[in-house]
Amino acid sequence: MLDDALDRLSHRGPDGVGTHRVADHNLVGHRRLAIIDPAHGHQPLVSPSGDALVANGMIYNDTALRGQLGEHRYDTGSDSESILHAVRRWGAGAPARLDGMFAFVYVANNRVIAARDPLGKKPLYRVRIGDVEGFSSEVKAFDGVADEITEFPPGHVYDSDRGLMRYYDVPDTDPVDRPTAQVVRDLREVLEAAVVKRLRSDVPLGALLSGGLDSSLVCALARPHVDELHTFAVGLPGTEDLRAARVVADHLGTIHHELVVDPDDVVGTMPDVIWHLENADINSVRSAVMTWQVMAFASEHVTVVLTGEGADELFAGYAYHGSYDPDEKLHAELRRSLQSMHNINLQRVDRMSMSHGVEARVPFLDKAVIAEAMEIHPRLKQLAPDGEPVEKWILRAVASDLLPDEILWRKKAQFDEGTGMTTLLPSLAAAESMGESEWYASMLDKRFENPEQVRAVAGTWTDDRV
Q: 154-207: per-residue pLDDT in tens?
């Protein structure tokens, strides 16, 4: 059964597969995408006493943890090994000490500890098959086998001795009034630090570039720290994202790669997109289609990419944010949307990247950036200097000396809009004599033995808005 599950997750780890039995009754398995210390760090990682760890993600404070935990304890250069030693030292307190994106399961003789990163950048599910309990990175691993699959909540740790516990929550603090110039300086500082820490890689690294403010700012902050920055853009012929991305790439001097997708090529990929995405929500699928395309394209050149996800949730970038009074409910809605990313946008980014053996890193969702952003008054996020609110105004101020004006003040276009999906996909569904939602649902039903288990853990973009 475990071998079958690992086979279904082969896309997540094309660089290796391993299993280990702990104390004759706990079996763990792993598919590896090798990023740090590719020659070593094979998983499961096993301690001298026989306990084992399987992990997915990237730990950015790995070097600092090695200093705390003792370099002499380490057998590899893998950042995941810091999780193993952290759990052995601090038990269920380990996840709060990790700076990164991660999902892990640690198994000892009579104890299991599992955890997921603060916002759920990396996926984790709990699985029950009869009286056997386990964990998985994707629903499909145990599709048609599991009696029950539930999503492991982000920011939580499970300890078989103590149960499920929260170790992180999005800060629930009131905005702090500060001079705007100070806000700009402070935000720029934490953003640049978040980008720089995500540049560590022992394999080729690049960045997605749509020509929008978010991805353009990430590229601009990364560029001085990378000798040759590869950037990747995608869209239908003539779409605005392709043009805008060229402007930014020329301005920053990146090695730019552009994928122009033929509309006829989209239809054939749709069943695979739905299967990997594990969601049939219209908004999620629309954004996933071109994410799938650009990740496949990027995988021909790099193994790690930086992305701009999270900026809209932090800095009020969506059109619907304009309907909230910045002095009342906007702050609460932004906090809610951050807490809801795990099975919507972050699920899309993880599934579409890992389906092609690419690791996506999200600087805007660094814990320090989140803490800083939640202290910024919403009025600076939807400022109206000329009477018309400007979305993400404070972020534009941060980028004012880094990007051309036409990019800096480019009106927000969601990824599915800028790449042409909001017009193409409804027409493709109509050609199948279906509505768009019905078309996506039909493909999900065909690809999964138990599609209701998939639907039960999938999110929708409008769930529980304030």
A: 999 999 999 999 999 999 999 999 999 999 999 999 999 999 999 999 999 999
Query: Of the given ranges (246-250, 380-384, 433-437, 456-460), which has the lowest mean pLDDT?
Result: 380-384
Max CA separation in the chain (angstroms):
69
Tokens for 198?
Answer: 């995500």
H-helix or E-strand spanning residue 205: strand 205-208
Q: How far is CA 198 from the centre of its chain?
A: 13
Torsion-angle region of residue 59: left (phi > 0), alpha (psi -120 to 50) or beta?
A: beta
For residue 436, the tally of other CB atoms under 10 A from its CB is: 18
Distance from C-alpha of 164 to C-alpha of 87, rounded to nearest angstrom: 16
Pick from 382, 276, 240, 260: nearest CA to 323: 382
String of DSSP letters for 349-406:
HHHHHHTTT-EEE-GGG-HHHHHHHHTS-HHHHEE-TTSS-EETHHHHHHTTTTS-HH
| Domains along the chain with CATH numbers | 2-166 (3.60.20.10), 180-457 (3.40.50.620)
Render the burial of 364-399: b for 16+ CB within 10 Å, e for the rest. Answer: bbbbebbebbbbbbbbbbbbeeeeebbbbbbbbbbb
d(CA 227, CA 317): 31
